[in-house]
Write a structure and sequence with these properties.
By secondary structure, this protein is an alpha/beta fold. The chain has a single domain, classed as Rossmann fold (3-Layer(aba) Sandwich). Helices cover 27% and strands 29% of the residues. The protein contains 6 helices and 7 strands, in the order ααβαβαββαβαββ. The protein has a 7-stranded mixed beta sheet with strand order 3-2-1-4-5-7-6. Strand 1, helix 3 and strand 2 form a beta-alpha-beta unit. Helix 3 runs parallel beside helix 4. The longest helix has 14 residues.
Length: 209
Amino acid sequence: MTHDKWAYPKEMWNERFSQAEPVYGEEPNAYVKAQAVRLKPGMKVLVPGDGYGRNGIWLAKQGLQVHTVDLSPVGVERARKAAQAAGVALKAEVADLAKWSWPVAEYDVVVSIFFHMPSDARAEIHPAMLRALKPGGLVILQSFTPEQLRYTSGGPKQADMLCTAELLRQDFAGAEILELEEKVVKLTEGHMHSGPAAVVQAVFRRNRP
């Protein structure tokens, strides 16, 4: 797998997360909130690519043990400070997830929200998400599809960075599909995720032995 063609370098994310206004808002992603019924206090949750922690902090407020990992030191430091201000525990780590040593059978849930990567990286990282789960654990995921190129509500402009239901079916082969749907939703997540958006959203469960 190559790591030198990531569309968004660390410097860009640092600049974005340095802005005073949270560019993706302060509220958690709506799809994550909709999955609250699947979550139980005490669960261990991994949130890759969580930026300044808006989803991780909300999950921690629900009583979950949360570990967020992001490429941007600026985003991670902001997440740590926001968690402290919110009075919740949050393990926030700086790492390039394409080079990270993904754990195996450690988490109850992986929450991946608009974590976009080139196809060669995605083909390795998505299965790594599944392996990071304990048997019966869940991947909760929302991503932009190629149809998003028609909209102005955010996301990568490179088709290779976008995802479809069929690609997810392949990446998470062997997992039980609890939800898998492409649809148009209305995003209200700060000024960089605002308006109609073409997404794929899914819940996969790692099979028990």
